[in-house]
Amino acid sequence: MTRMTRHLALWMLLSLAVLASQSAMAQELPDFTGLVEDAAPAVVNISTSREVETRSMPFDQFGGQELPEIFRHFFGERFGERFGEGMPMPPGAHGHSEERRSLGSGFIISEDGYIMTNAHVVKGADEILVRLNDSRELKAELVGADTKTDVAVLKVDADNLPTLTLGKSEDLKVGQWVAAIGSPFGLDHSVTSGIISAINRTLPRDVYVPFIQTDVAINPGNSGGPLFNLDGEVIGINSQIFTRSGGYMGLSFAIPIDVAMDVADQLRNDGSVSRGWLGVMIQPVSRDLADSFGMDKPQGALIADLDPEGPAARDGLKAGDVILEVDGQAVDRSSTLPRLIGRVAPGEDVDLEVLRNGEHQTVTVSVGDWPDAQQNGSGQDGDASPARLGIVVRPLESGQHDQAIDHGVRVVEVDPTGIAAEAGIRAGDILVSIGEHAVESPEQLRELIGELPEDRSVPVRLYRNGHSYYVALRLAQE
Fold it and tell me: What predicted TM-score, i.e. pTM, was given to this entire model?
């Protein structure tokens, strides 16, 4: 055999080896064609519309003078309306209603027309339209929505609809393949795929959801659509993206289907969602605190204070306790505790492993119901209650006043997903006034909340650590 022949044979062997390797790699990559064919009929497009009152100045008036023609040329005929929104209304100014539309995704969970999506997709909608895979458009009724988990259930008047098979999100593993079907930017039934990047992610403003993090391409319009495993089972609802550009940037988050279905069942059966409540103010355990408590590493949720009328105080928990486990489930960080307690049905007992004075103890607590649920269940107006802001308040007791203030109510608990938390109100603050009205009692606070305007900020005066502090509070339009 000549040298050229030997080189040619070696080249052919190497080529065959590369082809064999590529073929093996291709066989290992997932094929989503069958999944898409089976699942696509049960994935829907959701469009919503609502009328919004806007305030604007007439085009031909700006400070009492006609707008220069150059503004018309560069900014268009509606420059005056856009520029004038939110500005003080001069003489001749007017208001008008404007229709706003939004798009999202969803999927059918029952043959008789129940559909799952995100709460933010249908928030404030006057009309909800569902477009099926066969191009039918059906009006949908909102059965219920839970903003804390961002889950909503819709109902359309139809029978024998295609449905999806639900999986178990508790069985998920990091690295496994997943696929999403939805309507990014209104483009129906777009399919993207990737892997699970992490599980049990707790996001800063969504403490009740252990999110699934993926690298699946998710864009505006995908919200509410299903996330599938390779068996074609729904294991999550695509809900959020982390982005600085408005588009997909590699971090996508889905609500585990186990969490979503628990919420959906409550919405369908009861019309609302109940959550367990301890009545504690917690903080993270830093490394220095862990050392001071004699702990090997920072973990758990440190109780900084308790609602004196809450379940935790009633059943023996104390400030300074570090909660390490809830019914055997580890509390690896403070943000884990609200999620674990929130999934407990009110009235049930939980065994809490706590570290107290260097010793491990088990304290059994009968979990309470979140105060907003208690107020709504008592026949009081929940929309005019402090719970609408996501806070629990108590009257100022003797000795809690300061020379600088002689009135107010103490905030004893703040829902981290609520309006108050977004404004910057913290547990321990004294709420002194709303707008120009002094707050004298929880009852008066209820009245003031009922009179608050929607979609407009009002100043709230707080008293915190010996100093006055103002935040802007805005009630979202229902």
Answer: 0.69
